[in-house]
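Dear V.,

Thank you for sending over the compound details. I've combined the ligand you provided, zinc ion, with the protein sequence from our construct and run the structure prediction for the complex. I'm sharing the raw inputs here so there's no ambiguity about protonation or stereochemistry in the SMILES, which I know was a concern on your side last time.
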Amino acid sequence: MTWTPEELLRHTSGKVRERAQTLLGDVSHRSCEGQTYRARVQGSRRAPYRVQIDLQTGAVRCSCPDEYNAICKHAAATLWVLAENPESFEAAPEPRRLPRLRGWTDADVERLLERLHDLYPDTVDDWARQRVQTLEEEEWG
Ligand SMILES: [Zn+2]
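Below is the predicted structure of the protein with zinc ion bound, written out as structure tokens.
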């Protein structure tokens, strides 16, 4: 059995829901992976709180220090946004599994670097440039 955001919201107090209403515009970094939905909610601290909702199990987590409410206002705000606008939670990219390091051939490493370059072209370019520079300095230094 899976849960709907509306069902989970019914487990919150009126006060939490009232507070959550003021946070709807602060629910960002929305993503989903299967039945797990994640978002960040800007709270009173500088760093936003991380909310995770698993509709499969009904488990709701938030990184805020609210231990009094099983579902805090940040999670309630996320549930609300999820109920009203589920498409705004973009599917997170499939985690890519790396091959085991033992027994790697040069071709395996090359393929890995190519794949990393596809994913993070700027980072890999910068890293390669610095590495070449270091090698040149060592050679001529
Ligand atoms: Zn919270």
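A first observation: The first helix runs from residue 5 to 9.

Warm regards,
I. M.
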